[in-house]
User: Which sequence fits this backbone?
């Protein structure tokens, strides 16, 4: 559905609403299915995203408006990095992660795959997060987090 709310031809400048697709770009199973058949995925990057020099990015990523991705960051496949997210310099982001609005990483942060990082989560410099980790809203990550951790809200 484009900006005027009717299905039809999409014109340059139309705002697209993806509905459920935005919750997680494409399911990991679907992504792998098409990749095995050598069907490439494109990256969708908002015009206002600020992606710095030396960033390497896989396929099928969605980068939202006003998002910042710092120098020499490596981003895997099939990630949704929502609007106003800040990914610092020299970070490594795995595959099929959801990074919500207003989350932020410092430099040299590593995030595994299949993580859910909601709004307001902040990572200090150099921390590592395993795969399959779920954080509560507004959490401050100051230590390394093991695979498959479900972090409890401290409030």
Assistant:
């Amino acid at each position: 559905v484009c900006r005027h709310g009717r299905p039809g031809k999409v014109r340059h400048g139309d705002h697209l609403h993806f509905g459920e697709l935005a919750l997680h770009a494409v399911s990991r199973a679907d992504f792998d299915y098409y990749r095995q058949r050598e069907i490439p995925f494109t990256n969708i990057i908002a015009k206002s995203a600020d992606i710095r020099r030396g960033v390497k990015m896989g396929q099928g990523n969605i980068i939202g408006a006003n998002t910042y991705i710092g120098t020499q960051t490596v981003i895997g496949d099939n990630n949704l990095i929502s609007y106003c997210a800040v990914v610092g310099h020299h970070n490594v982001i795995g595959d099929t992660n959801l990074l919500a609005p207003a989350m932020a990483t410092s430099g040299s942060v590593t995030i595994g795959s299949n993580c859910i990082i909601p709004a307001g989560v902040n990572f200090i410099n150099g921390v590592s997060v395993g795969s399959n980790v779920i954080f509560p809203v507004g959490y401050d990550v100051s230590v390394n987090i093991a695979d498959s951790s479900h972090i409890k809200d401290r409030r």
User: Anything to note?
Assistant: The radius of gyration is 16 Å.
